Amino acid sequence: MEHLPPEQVSGVISNILASVPKVFFQISTVSDSYGDLIGCELHLTIQPYAWWLAALSEHGNVTWSQEGPISSMFIVERV
Asked: Are 25 and 56 in contact (CB under 8 A)?
């Protein structure tokens, strides 16, 4: 999800949850370190846990989540 431009995040979450009843997300919350090697930013949507929780909750029921130092994890069910 962090590889998407911010304006595409909502639509992609919606499409994913239209396709499956439950999904696991592990989303990086830090800048990438490899984009510099190719001269391109790879993480386009770098947001904290709370931002992703709100974005995912708009489209489904977050049944489990965990905030980590470099990524956040979520299980989201379609409602």
From this structure: yes
First to last CA, the chain: 20
Exposed, middle or buried by CB within 10 Å (0-12, 13-18, 19+), for 54? exposed
Q: Are 59 and 17 in contact (CB under 8 A)?
A: yes
Q: What is the pLDDT of residues 24-55, one digit of tens each?
A: 999 999 999 899 899 999 999 999 999 999 99
4's CB contacts (< 8 A; 6+ apart) are: 12, 44, 45
Task: Provide φ and ψ at 17, rounded to 5°.
Answer: -70, -15
Q: Does pTM top 0.90 for this prediction?
A: yes
CA distance 63 to 11: 20
Instruction: Quote the mean pLDDT of the chain.
Output: 97
